[in-house]
Every structure is written in structure tokens, then in C-alpha cells.
Amino acid sequence: MIDFGNFYQIIAKSKLSPWLEVLPAQLALWQKQNHDNRFNHWLNSLKHLPHFIPDEIDLKEQVRVTAATQLSAGQEKQLRHLLLALSPWRKGPYDLYGIHIDTEWRSDWKWQRLIKHISPLANRTVLDVGCNSGYHLWRMVGEQAQLAVGIDPMPLYLCQFEVIRQLLGNDMRAHFLPLGIEDLPKLNAFDTVFSMGVLYHRRSPLDHLYQLKDQLVHGGELVLETLIIDGDQHQALMPGERYAQMRNVYFIPSIKTMENWLYKCGFCDVNVVDVSITTTDEQRKTDWMTSDSLADFLDPSDNSKTIEGYPAPMRAVFIAKKP
């Protein structure tokens, strides 16, 4: 079982304290519903994780930790085995005591594209919606966030995050809660809210934007990254059964449509700070994620299209404020 007691203590005397009215019961229910054989297997990796004392930790330029003395061959083999047991690793990369987890996504590239455009995270309380393994939470800590909270309902990602936390020396500035945004009350308590790669998975994108706004303080900042298409302010793509082999893609807006959605939901000061085509260098198969990846989802005769014939993935980062 995962113990969330430290998080409860941290938020008890903060502006997040109203969350305690519902959160313990929600997490207890989640653990009861997700206690299956796979989860037990992943938890077992946590229990058998060897203890290392960190020497140097870098969260500013990467997520990297080293020990004062090099791991023995046996220690490295044991650690690598335990980390591989938590595959697939999709978001990263991580460098942990000499072991490089080469994840499917170069999430550090996305971070580099947006970090220079957002409000400084120092001393801010931050929420990352759909945080996967929590890679960006550690980069937020590297930017001196006071508290970085990630939510994602997937049990594997929770275990991946907890392994990284332990290997980083049990840093308590970042926390992972296995919840979806729809599970959160209207907290109005986060200075910055990130939603990266989530919007197009929501049946109602406007409801998602309202949910994000409900988590922000007045004057707080939304950082949203999503798939986009070329087009005017009236256009959005609603794919059929699959988009790039993903089943749960509902709406992919144009930049102007996305801006209109944000304004319609009550955000202000909307800016597009980056537009990037997703390449097979940024998303690909690795030894840590061996199933199909982007190269398998594109038309082999025309990489500007998905295998279904839609425009290939292009992503934009939007920044907006809650009045």
C-alpha cells in the first residue's frame, strides 16, 4: 500500500487544507479498487528497492542522481532489474545512479520549449494534471516550486513516481495522487496548473478547461499543451475510431479555436508560446518502452499523415490567466 500521510500533513496547514475533507476517502477507495496482481507486482518492486544515499541531485537541467561511490556490478544489476519491472516507461528521461532510463518520450524537450515562457515557479504551489510518471514534477521542483502535485489515475505511474522519489532521497516537495481532474473539488488554490497532452483525451474539452480553472487562484496561470491542426477559429478535428492508433482522441482544435475555447471558459491573456511537430526523435521505441510508438502510427509513405490519413501530430503550448 502507498502511504499518503506525509501529503496530508503538508497540506493541513496550507491553502489546500479543504481538500482533506474528501481526499483520504477517495484515496482509500482507489487503493481498494486497484489492489490487483499487477499492482502487487509493482509494489513489490518498491519494497525491494535497494537504499542508496544520494550524493548529487540535479533537477534543474535534468532528473539525475548520483552516489558518492559507484554502484557495484551486483547493485547496478539489481536496480536495473527492478526499474525494468516497472516498464513501460513513457515520460522522462531519468539518470539514476548510472542507469539511464531512456523513456519513449523526450519530455525534457517539451520542458525546454515551455519553461522560458511561463511565470517563474519559485515558491508556487503547482498542479500537473495527467502527470504520468511525474517527470515534470521533478523539473518543477528544480525550478524551486514550493509544492508540486501530480494527478494521474494509473497505478503503474504511481509506482514509477514512488521509485523515483525514493531514489532521490524521499524529496517531499513533489507528490503523486492517483486521481483524475474530475475527482478534485473546486480548490481555487494552485498558483500554476499544467495540463499537457490531456485535452484531446477529454470528451468535453470545455468541461476540462473549467475544471482546470476551478483549481487556480485568481491571477493563477494555466499552462496547456495539446494537439492542434491547421485551420481558422471555427475548425476542430473530431477523428473517427482512432487517431495515430489512439482510441480516445475526441477533439483536436486549430490554434484559433483553442484560443476561443479558453476565452469562452473565462481565461484571459491567452498566448501561444510554442508550436512543434512531434518527431520520431521525440517519441520512439526504446529498451524501456518496446511496444509500438510514433513511427508505427504514421503513414509509411507520407509522414505528414497518420496511418488513418489525418494530419500528423502537431502540438502547441498555450498560456492563460484566471482573472
Automatic annotation (TrEMBL):
It is an enzyme of class 2 (transferase). It catalyses: carboxy-S-adenosyl-L-methionine + 5-hydroxyuridine(34) in tRNA = 5-carboxymethoxyuridine(34) in tRNA + S-adenosyl-L-homocysteine + H(+). It holds the Pfam family Methyltransf_9. Keywords: Transferase, tRNA processing. Its EC number is 2.5.1.-. Homotetramer. Catalyzes carboxymethyl transfer from carboxy-S-adenosyl-L-methionine (Cx-SAM) to 5-hydroxyuridine (ho5U) to form 5-carboxymethoxyuridine (cmo5U) at position 34 in tRNAs. This is tRNA U34 carboxymethyltransferase.
